[in-house]
Amino acid sequence: MTYNIPEWFIPKYSDEVKIRAQQKRRKLDGVFEDGGMFVGDFYYTPRFGSVETYKANRFDALRLANAAMDWVKQDCEPEFAAFGVWDPDQNKLNISMAGQFAGATVKAVNRARDRQTIDALKDAAANGVQNTKGDAAEQIATIGNYNTVATLETICEAIADLGTNEMFESETVSLILPFKVNVNLSLDPYLAKSEMKNNRVWDQVQFRTYEKLPGNGPNGEGWLAGGATGVDMFIVAQSAGATAQNDDDTEINERMGSQLGTMIGRWFQAGAKVIEPKGVIRIKSKLDFALMRQAIPIIDVAV
User: Fold this and answer.
1) How confident is the model at residue 1 (pLDDT cuts 50, 70, 90)?
2) What is the count of structural domains for the chain?
3) Which 3-state string (H, E, C) describes the chain?
4) Which of 202, 215, 220, 259 sees the fewest Cβ atoms within 10 Å?
């Protein structure tokens, strides 16, 4: 019965969750900035327009910088990682068992936070970004198409388009793409040329692989198992999105009544949202293709 769960089991599980959460990073951690204020089940992120400094002489009246500001709102539903524990044989519960539950919990939370980031990008691509004042939604830019494989040239075009917006200069930029497209880019023949090995603008971008991106599947999937032939990739400036969590993870430790079990785990409330559409570019690419490396033609060398 559940009363046989040792007193040390739940505290050990909680301690292991904290340790493992510090050791294991999310795949998409740091793509967006942290920031936002929770009000109930919603969090709000402020957006400021461009602000410039100005000079003032002594005894001049102080002028105020009238910065344009609005808010972007995101709904956040609670997410749970809960397990039912029933152990009639007390000796089955040990320190290793608590660690296994903790490891599964941390992985589940990490996957959920990554999924929220992708959902935010997917929502921005489909619906744009709208503020709380009800203004018309601002759309993100899209390049490429589902019939052509994204190449290094496509990526460079996106980087160049993002670079024209000086508000994102010198900040972290991430490219989120499927692993297969990432492999294809590494086979690009231009990368083998010696004059291309220094001062490459794409080396300043963090390449992040993620296999559950949206695309043109029947239900918006971007992976083959979902029936897609095209996938959406995203290049993202860090300040273009915001993610927030309502306090820390909360411990679950409750008797499950007639089920003769104890529910342990964690729950949390968090979300992610694109707040500045100019800082996100969607890159459409063909999903299923044959990997190949084209030979580089060399002048004055006979074939």
Assistant:
1) very low
2) 1
3) CHHHCCCCHHHHHHHHHHHHHHHCCCCCCCCCEECCEEECCEEEEEEECCCCCCCCCCCCCCCCCCCCEEEEEEECCEEEEEEEECCCCHHHCCHHHHHHHHHHHHHHHHHHHHHHHHHHHHHHHHHCECCCCCCCCECCEEEECCCCCCCHHHHHHHHHHHHCCHHHCCCCEEEEECHHHHHHHHCCHHHHCHHHCCCCHHHHCEEEECCCCEECCCCCECCHHHCCCEEEEEEEEHHHEEEEECCCCEEEEEECHHHCCEEEEEEEEEEEEECCHHHEEEEEEECCCCCCCCCCCCCCCCC
4) 259
Q: Which pLDDT value is given to residue 262? A: 85
More confidently predicted of 79 and 195: 79
Q: Is residue 200 part of a domain?
A: yes
Residue 89: pLDDT band by 50, 70, 90 thresholds?
low
Record the pTM.
Answer: 0.87
Task: List pLDDT tens digits, range 7-48.
Answer: 888 899 999 998 988 887 889 999 999 988 899 899 999 988
Supply the CATH number for residue 229's domain.
3.90.1690.10
Look at residue 15 in the predicted model and tell me its pLDDT: 92
CA distance 121 to 140: 10
